[in-house]
Amino acid sequence: MLPKKIQGFNSFINGDNYAGLATEVTLPKLGRKVEEYWAAGMDGPIDIDMGGTKLESSIVIAEFTRALILAHGTPTVDGNELRFIGAAQSGQGVNSWDQIEVVQRGIFTEHDMGTIKGGDDTSMTLAASLTYYRYDLNGETLIEIDRPGFIYKVGGVDLLAGQREILNP
Q1: Is there a domain that residue 47 lies in?
Q2: pLDDT tens for residues 112-155?
Q3: Per residue in 68-79, pLDDT tens?
Q4: Beta-carbon contacts of residue 41 (< 8 Å; ≥ 6 apart)
Q5: DSSP characters for the chain?
Q6: Residue 166 lies in a domain
C-alpha cells in the first residue's frame, strides 16, 4: 500500500481563482489547549481539554496582486475566504483520486512582500488568523470549526452542542 500524496492543488481567495499564482499553502495546525491537573487521590497529573488553539494559515502568491494587497485592511474577523482544493493519489490506479477541500475564513494579519532582488523570484506571503475552518474529503466534512458560532464538529459530531444547550437555554 502506498500513501496518497497531493499531486496538484488550486487556491481561491475571496472567490478569485489563483491557479498558476498560488505556489504554497500552509494549512492551520489543529491543536487543543490543555491544563495540567493533579488532585488528591491521583497518582499523577492529567491534561484537561480547555478548548481549541488559535487557527492560523498562510498562502504564497507568485505576484503582488492588487486585490490581495487591498484585502489587507478588511475590518471583519471573517472578511476573507481562503479555499484550497487538492487532488491526492497513491499511484496505485488511475481512478484512485481523493479530493481534499479546505474552506477557511478570517482576517489577513500579515502581507509579507519579502525581498526583491534583480534576477530573483518574487512572491507575496499572506498570513491569516482564522475564525472558520472546514476540512472535506471527497465531499464528506471531517472537521468543521466555527469559533463565533461556537461549533466544533469532528466526524459529524458537534462536540460543543451540549455546552451550547446549557449556555443558551
Answers
A1: no
A2: 998 988 998 899 999 999 999 999 999 999 999 999 999 999 99
A3: 999 988 889 999
A4: none
A5: ----EEEEEEEEETTEE-TTTEEEEEPPP--EEEEEE--TT-SS-EEEEEEEPPEEEEEEESS--HHHHHGGG--STT-EEEEEEEEEE-SS-TT--EEEEEEEEEEEEEEE-----TTS---EEEEEEEEEEEEEETTEEEEEEETTTTEEEETTEETTHHHHHHH--
A6: no
Has residue 135 been placed in a domain? yes
Structural domain tally of the chain?
1
Cell 475566504 -> residue: 81
In a domain, 109, yes or no: yes
Q: 86 has which bridge partners?
A: 9, 100
Burial readout 100-131 (b: 16 or more C-beta within 10 A, e: otherwise): bebbbbbbbeeeeeeeeeeeeeebbbbbbebb
The grid coordinates listed for 20 are 498558476
- Alpha-carbon distance of 12 to 68, in angstroms, equals 11
Domain that holds residue 119: 5-30+55-141
The amino acid sitting at 66 is R
Give the side-chain half-sphere CA count within 13 A for 104: 26
The model's pTM: 0.91
